[in-house]
């Protein structure tokens, strides 16, 4: 399953993170990363201490777009 598919299910399909984790347990890491896209970039930079994870999430925000929440 791609990040785009998870993004579409979460933000366009209305599935919660918990539902996606239950439906796709093998994609748990991707589901959690997509869930972090909801957090504003400034707050994300303050709270995520792991540099590689932060870079990946910021890349996903640029690539997939900002979720309309």
Textual characterization of the structure:
- The protein is mainly α and 69 residues long.
- It has five helices and no strands.
Mean pLDDT, nearest integer? Answer: 92
Terminal Cα span: 22 Å
pLDDT under 50 segments (min length 5)? none
Our Rg estimate from Cα atoms comes to 11 Å
Number of strands: 0
Question: Which band does the percent of strand residues land in?
Answer: under 5%
Shape: globular
**What summary fits the major beta sheet?**
none
Topology:
Layout: H1 3-12, H2 17-23, H3 28-35, H4 41-47, H5 51-64
Question: What attributes characterize this protein structure?
Answer:
single chain, 69 residues, mainly alpha, 5 helices, 0% strand, globular
